[in-house]
Design goal:
Blueprint lengths: L6 E5 L1 H10 L6 H10 L4 E5 L9 H10 L4 E5 L3 H10 L3 E4 L19 H13 L3 E6 L3 H10 L3 E5 L1 H8 L3 H20 L3 E5 L4 H7 L5 E6 L1 H10 L1 H18 L1
Length: about 250
Amino acid sequence: MPKNRLRLGINVDHVATVRNARGGALPDPVRAAHLAIAAGADGITAHLREDRRHIRDADMERLARELSKPLNFEMAATEEMIVLAEKLKPHAACLVPEKREERTTEGGLDVVGQAAPLAPAIARLKAAGCRVSLFIEPDEAPIAMAAELGAPVVELHTGTWCHAVADGHSAKAEAEFQRLAKGAAFAASLGLEVHAGHGLDYDTARKLAAVPDFVEFNIGHFLIGEAIFVGLEATIARMRQAMDEGRTAG
């Protein structure tokens, strides 16, 4: 096992997506969270969206009450979500951008343009005992602003890189990988803990794990999709192996 082992957070949103497509109570995302922890996940991520398209309030309440490992509450910086986080007191609150019409989060939070409203939101979440993370692009301006706003953690958006890899655009993929590596190093130099997420699969997670400044990956859609074919336990074990291989090689 690598000395500086990466943490793996599992996002259970899309178990709830399947449930909501049919209605009823199954499959249960909270059961998936328990299974993920038993399989070796270091924490659970869940995004309660404004339109409740997947995770619902009752899911968040159960996750906050039942989990034996940290809960990372992904949320928009709205009054409704802040009040709920103050009530539930999850281990972490990750502030993300949110647009009702998007299929999934399409980029990092505009922390530079939204610094004024974000500052009191971050302060309230920290006062509630939440470890605040900001989901941002891997560039110096938003990273520096995250540090200025007092967020102890940044999660760098890996989606642009992962899409370039998947599309076979090798030059763009390499440029985006270097952008992530430089962003992670800059964030770490400011004393921030550095996470990564969005679009990661076995291969991209293995490659990114070689960058020593990353501490945690949060992965959801890919793992839930793979679990349909081989099961959640096997999928998490293979992801854990890929991340360990990358970290050891790095």
